[in-house]
Amino acid sequence: MRGTMPKSAELHQLHGTTRKTSKARATAARTVAVPTPDDVLTPPEYLEGVALAEWNRLAPELKSRNMFTVLDRNTLATYVTTWALYLEAVAALKETGVAIKTGVRSKKTSPHALVVETSSRALSRLSGELGLNFLSRARLGIQEKADYSGGEFADF
Fold first, then answer.
1. How many angstroms separate the CA atoms of 24 and 22, rounded?
2. Looking at CB atoms within 10 Å, which of 7, 32, 43, 70 has the fewest?
3. Are the C-beta atoms of 51 and 80 separated by less than 8 Å?
4. Between 111-130 and 73-96, two packed helices, what is the crossing angle to 10 degrees?
5. Along the 156 residues of the chain, how does pLDDT read in single tens digits?
6. CA–CA separation, 139 vs 68, rounded Å?
């Protein structure tokens, strides 16, 4: 390799040698506001529709169980985005069916089926990381609040 490696925009900024170049402007454009613990329940700006509704449903519940911090925001955002994608693919799969015609006598598996399969695997993995299923809560040692009031077995 010839010569020295060029400095990154971050190093220029650290050393105080930044210039009004595209490199410095690109770094400024990449700066993202880091959420504080106070606004942990505020959803990311890019969430909308079903993903936003799912965030608003899950985030307060996880926070009330002390299972949600600033560090978990990206995981929850990925989960709710994948959930919205999953629901969209299931709706499309209902319309097209599992197999689609490609010719006179040939059929192939719908691409929506692949999206459903892939997103369901991702949802399963992410739900375990967030403590959204029984087994992951049991591994974390979180006790479920059982509601035994009423019902035919209330006296037992």
1. 5
2. 32
3. yes
4. 150
5. 577 877 777 777 767 777 766 555 555 556 556 666 667 889 999 999 999 999 999 999 888 888 888 889 999 999 999 999 999 999 999 998 888 888 888 888 889 999 999 999 999 999 988 888 888 878 777 766 665 566 665 555
6. 16
